[in-house]
Structure formats: C-alpha cells, structure tokens
Amino acid sequence: MNDYDNGFDTRPDGGLAGPLYVPPNPEPDENIRHSLFGEILDWMLAPLLLLWPMSIAITYLVAKSIANQPFDDALEDRVTVLTQQVRMVDGRVTAQLRNGARDILRADDVDSVYFQISGPGGEHLDGDRDLARPRPGNTDDRARTGAVAFRNDSFHGTPIRIAYSYVNLDPLRERRDTDGMALVQVAETLEKRAHLANEIIKGVILPQFIILPVILGLVWFALSRGLSPLAELQERIRTRPQDDLSPIDPRQVPEEISPLVGSFNDMLQRLAQTIEMQKRFIADAAHQMKTPLAGMRMQSELALRQADPDEIHRSLEQLAQSSESATRLVNQLLALARAENQPQAGLAFDEVDLPRLARETVQDWVQASFAQRIDLGFEPPDEPVTIAGNPLMLREMLSNLIDNALRYTPAGGSVTVRVRRDGEQSVVEVEDTGPGIAPGERARVFERFYRILGSNTQGSGLGLAIVREIVRQHGAEIDIFNNPRSHSKKYPGSLFRLTFPPPVHEPDDAA
After folding, report:
1. Which of 101, 136, 277, 470 has its CA 20 to 30 A from that of 392?
2. Bigger pLDDT: 104 or 473?
3. Tens digit of each residue's pLDDT (9 = 90 or more) over 113-132
4. C-alpha to C-alpha distance for 95 and 83, rounded to whole angstroms
5. Which residues are registered as beta bridge partners of 145?
6. CB-based contacts of 83: which residues, under 8 Å, 6+ apart?
7. In sequence order, what E strands does 42-132 have?
8. What is residue 18's predicted lDDT score, i.e. its pLDDT?
9. Domain 57-197 falls in which CATH fold?
10. Sheet harboring 425-432: ordered strands across?
C-alpha cells in the first residue's frame, strides 16, 4: 500500500499530516439548470426568425409577378396595334406605321422601348434590326395562332421583356407554323418593373419591421403571464411554515402543473410519514430507556449506601443486568432504525447463500441454547438455495427470530431452523416448542414494544418489529402458525415461516 491508499498525506518523518485534499469534481454539463422561460421563448422565436426571411423572399417573388402584369398588358396592346398595321399589298408585305405612331410607341420617360417587324422570310420591314428573333423550337404556340406571347431576353447586354406575335397574311392558309408568317415584336427594359416591385416590397416589409418587435414584446408578455402561476406557487411554498406538510390544493394551479403538484404532494405525504415515524421512534426510545436507566441509578445508589459486601455484590449484579438490558434495548433500537431506513426491496442487494447464512447464525446461538438447556438444531436443504438480499440485515432478522424462540421455549424444549425450497420460492422456518401465539395476537406481535399479556419473558419488544421491517425490505412474506410437530396442549409451539421471492437475474451483457 502506498502513502495515499489510506487517504492521508505522509510527512517526511513518517507521521500523518492529515487527510489529503481532493478537489471536488466539476459538475457535469447535464446538471446545468435551464430556464423554462428561455427554452419556450427559443422554441417560439426560432421558427419565427427562420420563417421571416422566407416570407421576404416569397413576398419579393409575388411582388415581381404583380409588377409584371400591368406592363405585360401594355406590351400586349402595343403588339396588337402593330399587327393591325401589317398587310399584304400587291403580293408584298408592308407595315403602314406612321411617324407619329412610331414616336408614341417609343415614348417612355423611364424604360427604353424597341420594336421590330419582320416579313415571312425573315426580312426586316421596320424597327430595330438587332432585336433577336424567337429561337427555333422555343416559340410559344399561342404566338402561332395570332395571340401575344412573352419571353425574357437581352438587348445590347440589357435585360428586356419582349412581347411578340405572328401575323398570318393568308387567311385561307391552313398551316400554322411560322413559315410564311410575319413577326411583330415589342420590347422594353425592366426599370419600371423593378421600381414597382421594390415599392410593393417596401410597402409590405417595412410594416413587418414595426410589427416584429411588437410580436416579440407580446410573446414575452404572454410567456410572463403564462408562467406567473409557477412564480405564485413558488411563493406559496416559500412562505409556508417549516412544519406545514399539508398537501397543495391542485385546483389552485393550472392543469399542466397538476401532475407536478400531485407528485409533490406524494413526496410531502411520504416526508410526513417519515417524520412521524422518527417522532414515534424517539418517543418510544425515550420511554423504553427510562426503565433500565432508572433501575441502574437505583441500584448504584443502593450499592453506595450498603456496607455489607454481599449486599454490594448483589446490587452490582442487578446493575450489570440492568446495563445489559439497556445495551440490548439500544442495539435493538439501532437495528430497527437501520432496517426502516434501508432502500426498497431489490436495490443494492447481493446474492446470498441462504443455508450457509442460516447455519452461521444458528452457531452464534449454540452457547445460549446450552445455557437454557434447549435443543437448537438446523435442517439444511437438499439443494442450493440463494436469494437476493443484504447479508447483515438477513442475519439480524434470523438472530431475532432465534432469540425470540429461545426466550419463549421452556427448558428441555427444542428450537429448529429450517431452510428449504418451495418451487421457485425460498423458505426459512423457525419453529419452537413454546406456549405458541394465539391467532388473535399474531398480527400484533410485530408492533413495537407489544407484549402478549401473561408472558413473563424479559425482552425489549422490538425483535419481531425488526423482523417485519427486514422482511418488507426484501419483498418477502412472514406467517405464523402453530408448530405441527408439537403434540402438547400446554406448549403448542410456534412456527415462523418466511417466504422469499426468486432472485431476479440481470441479463448477461456479453450475450
């Protein structure tokens, strides 16, 4: 073992310098407290802040669509007017467009307007020569039927919007492709459209910049109001007297908090039961300790007044007996307190070899049985018997049962401890040849300090109470019967039978 194995530092001279300082482990991140208000606010505002840019993008697209429609209608009107000017005269295609009409067509203070009229063979008739024709294969079917179609293109590197239509110069012509048809196109730049779209976006987005802080404020206010019952509940709990363990009325809290309040009330009830148990334990202990302490004080005062050595010796013997009773009572009280504060059944239990534990416990009481001239025996099982339990508690339980049997069995009688298996369950039996326990008394003998009337046996009255607590902690059952092997009417004997559930085996991780 090195110098640090015992938890103390070692001085150069070999002495102990005191306990080593072990820095506390930092708290894991999982223990960091989170704000319920902040978490709800995050879950509400995060989607809002994520959807807001999407809303702006959708608004921009809708604004562009809205801004395009009136300008497309104007372009369509211009194309319709131009198509009416294209005619076939003496077998030749002409466009009778006057100078005034041409000036009106190009008149625009913001956008640049272009037009082009082409003959059936693609020859240029009027307008801007550089304006691109529709690409083969991309011509809208509506344009072939005389309707106006639209497309986006560029002119000298500037984006433009083009409206175009084909003019059928031969009404009797059944063919509906573009061959042999005149083409009319009108285009304009996109400044007015962009300006209108921006104005629409400003009209929609700017109010949102004003509304968004208002929404955030309303959400903050709503959350504060919604969580105010928690603050009121906290204040009511904080202002309670220290000894007030009464339940909280669940009708005074919102429905969502009712399960929490119900769990809290259950905890208060368990706490009240624990405190009441402790109070009763302290009161019982104080009451029971008065008798042996008073006897010890009386015997010591009597010994001090005696001059006869024999009387002094007799007083000292009585004093020793009283101290032995007080010691046993204290040990029983501590055992009962330890049993009542153990965890629930099945928690932190080990696998216990029940026959071995019972045999060792019986061996502890062999000398006491010889002194009382009682035959103490043990009957082992034919097969291994194991249970899940606490070995120290189980040993205390068996010791109390054997002690109880020895105290109530007269000289010449017998006490037998038996371990056996009953199907999947494990059974421990302690039988004696004493006066037995009447059926009406069997439920009460497990109460603290309860004594059967007429019994002159000395004891603390806690042994069977300790047994009951340990049995309960192990999820077992205890029953009392008459000894079936006793044939005496005066001494029918008692049989204490403890039935333990089968141990629960944990699954093998390696499997």
Report:
1. 277
2. 473
3. 888 888 887 888 888 888 88
4. 9
5. none
6. 146, 165, 167, 184
7. 86-89, 92-95, 113-118, 124-127
8. 39
9. Beta-Lactamase (3.30.450)
10. 375-379, 414-422, 425-432, 494-500, 477-482
